[in-house]
């Protein structure tokens, strides 16, 4: 009798967890995770580094390396999302590009934001292709910080002593701010970036080495097109051939998508299979904070309840969600 009661209780717990997952899915589908109030937190993104590229050849130099059209940067376009690829067309890292000063034919300055753990590799790649270009490449992490706010129109530094832009990936997501460490700041800044990453995962915005493993991730599966990060008309760049061919000739069947767990899943092996009810693999786990994560999913096969096993061997239930900011063809 006691065993039967325990089994019923365990089943009720499992059902409650699944109901919570469905509730979280409804919230993700129907709610914009926005906060435009003055109380919106501003996060110091210590996981992101900054590189300054400066010189007369800055624009043509970067134009041949990154996926987006750097020639569009200027007073009207102050930031871009982009990626740096290897020669096989795989992702080295995701990038944010900022105009510090871009004047065609004159000395220009572009700031490149990337995962801080990849700074050395990115700088090495830039210097490898610099050849005789009139540019300098400098790590400026010691003098500048990357901040993020949920408010797309935030202002934190008096007198405009900062680069403040709407997030170029998904404008409704918020703002990016680049400030000098010596700049006076009008509001408090959180040094704990967990809140930023949890919200980013809720939105399904990939960022950094966990979501985009260097040397293996494909840019189109990382939603590069959806996040305004590539030009298919600017001409050649490093790794361009595979990206352009895939875009023009095929359908992107797998994409990084937000996933919602029925509870905190604990530790999960990167690349762990995500299974459907028939135990067929329909995706690969990438990253998680709390109950929100990102997985590389087969878009046509995400319906219904999914499972994966954590490092303790427990079966964890989850669902994949199509973000509101995807275009209609991203179904």
TrEMBL record:
Cellular location of this protein?
Answer: Mitochondrion
Give the Gene3D superfamilies listed for this entry: Probable tRNA modification gtpase trme, domain 1 (3.30.1360.120)
Gene Ontology CC entries for this record: mitochondrial matrix
This protein's UniProt keywords = Mitochondrion, Transit peptide
> Where does the CAF17 C-terminal domain lie?
253-327
Q: Which GO terms describe its biological process?
A: iron-sulfur cluster assembly
Name under which the protein is recorded:
CAF17 C-terminal domain-containing protein
């Amino acid at each position: 009798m006691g065993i039967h009661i325990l089994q019923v209780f365990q089943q009720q717990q499992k059902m409650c967890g699944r109901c919570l997952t469905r509730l979280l899915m409804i919230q993700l589908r129907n709610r914009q995770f926005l906060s435009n109030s003055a109380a919106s937190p501003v996060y110091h993104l210590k996981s992101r580094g900054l590189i300054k590229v400066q010189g007369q050849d800055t624009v043509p130099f970067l134009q041949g390396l990154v996926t987006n059209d750097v020639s569009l940067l200027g007073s009207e376009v102050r930031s871009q999302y982009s990626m740096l690829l290897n020669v096989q067309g795989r992702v080295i890292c995701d990038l944010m590009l900022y105009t510090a000063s871009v004047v065609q034919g004159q000395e220009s300055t572009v700031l490149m934001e990337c995962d801080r753990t990849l700074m050395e590799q990115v700088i090495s790649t830039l210097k490898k292709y610099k050849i005789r270009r009139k540019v300098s490449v400098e790590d400026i992490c010691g003098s500048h910080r990357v901040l993020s706010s949920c408010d797309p129109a935030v202002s934190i530094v008096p007198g405009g002593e900062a680069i403040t832009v709407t997030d170029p990936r998904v404008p409704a997501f918020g703002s990016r701010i680049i400030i000098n460490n010596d700049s006076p700041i009008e509001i408090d800044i959180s040094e704990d970036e967990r809140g930023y990453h949890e919200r980013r995962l809720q939105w399904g915005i990939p960022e950094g080495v966990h979501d985009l493993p260097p040397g293996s991730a494909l840019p189109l599966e990382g939603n590069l097109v959806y996040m305004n990060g590539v030009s298919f008309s600017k001409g050649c760049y490093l790794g361009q051939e595979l990206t352009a061919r895939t875009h023009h000739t095929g359908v992107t069947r797998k994409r990084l998508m937000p996933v919602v767990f029925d509870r905190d899943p604990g530790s999960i092996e990167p690349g762990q299979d995500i299974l459907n009810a028939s135990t067929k693999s329909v995706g690969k786990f990438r990253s998680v904070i709390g109950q929100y994560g990102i997985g590389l999913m087969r878009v046509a096969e995400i319906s219904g309840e999914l499972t994966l096993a954590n490092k303790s061997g427990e079966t964890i239930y989850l669902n994949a969600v199509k973000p509101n900011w995807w275009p209609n063809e991203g179904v």
